[in-house]
Amino acid sequence: MLTLYHTPLSPACRKVRIMLTEKELNVDLIEEDVWQRRLDFFKLNPSGEVPVLMGEGGIVVCGGYAISEYLEEMYPEVQFFGNSLEEKAEVRRLVEWFDGNFNQEVTHNMLFEKVFKHLYGYGEPSSEAIRAGKRNLSYHLDYIAHLLSHRNWLAGDYLTLADITAAAHLSCLDYLGDIDWDLQQATREWYALIKSRPSFRYIMEDRVTGFRPPAHYADPDF
Amino acid sequence: MLTLYHTPLSPACRKVRIMLTEKELNVDLIEEDVWQRRLDFFKLNPSGEVPVLMGEGGIVVCGGYAISEYLEEMYPEVQFFGNSLEEKAEVRRLVEWFDGNFNQEVTHNMLFEKVFKHLYGYGEPSSEAIRAGKRNLSYHLDYIAHLLSHRNWLAGDYLTLADITAAAHLSCLDYLGDIDWDLQQATREWYALIKSRPSFRYIMEDRVTGFRPPAHYADPDF
Asked: How far apart are CA A37 and CA A50, in angstroms?
């Protein structure tokens, strides 16, 4: 049995949970309130961050990068990185782009400011950061639409970790009501397909105290 | 022949260049001034960022994550991710930590503010960001020292991509004179070992117009 330490509104945790479900792996989920800075959790991951996976044989794997590569190598039956070197390069380019650029310019500015900053005791949200996040979101959504204008999925012809990573970020922002789907028809159709997968639907059931998602949030036919 | 588009003071580019040299691969280096936003370069990498590798058979691989994994899979004779699943997990945990947390909290605050912000035309450096970067650097260096207190190399008994990634970041900060090595004896000894490798020494020869590194910068016996 695998164990995953996670927190609900974390794109990296959502990505790993989707991979686990898609690979049909049973996992024991433990919600870790990272902002509590629990000493025993720092012994598992010195950065004190989620996700942390305890795998078979007691292996401890920390962080979305290490866990996703570990799951792909250890349980290769269902693959998410593509097959050829070209496909893998394209998947990893997009994963790095979402977990790097998109995270820094959008997710961090909105999700961290609105939800986690207070929990960590770092003070009030910065309205300037949130505004910058919204501005950046708009042109990053344009890039997703651009990819979907000549591909069925973000990295090519089928679902890969690029789609899962992007959808994990968007789902957290959507929970906060920060995406205007009316402006994003192609992206909305792509996201609806992902949302309708069982691996994604169970994540949509998470609720975070103090934040209620908009009505369309968990609806696959939104 | 491989071709790498790079810019000298980029940790991600330095990491890839070190891997290429350590793997004894011949590469044609092209310096790309990313802030010029050259249209033909955006056709290679839609994010307009370096590093971009053109590999055998015309494959285009974008970003430090995709390139490092590609080089490891394509040219496995000299390995940088460790051998066991445990080692790989530890290497990737640290790589993500340096390219994620360390980059966001330290490198971006210092290198981007001091060097790239002006080149991109984003205005004057923020002294507040630079101060935050220095503060964060101090406790992140403590973490490196902590790792080296019970290991020869950051991820274990031998040099891995974790060391290369960390040294790539530190070398860019050191170019700007931002590291007080007198306070970091263990880290200094580890960094001196990396600096003395031929793969690293040739990177030390890079110079950036308008910025002169401190006297100790390229000296392996600093």
From this structure: 11
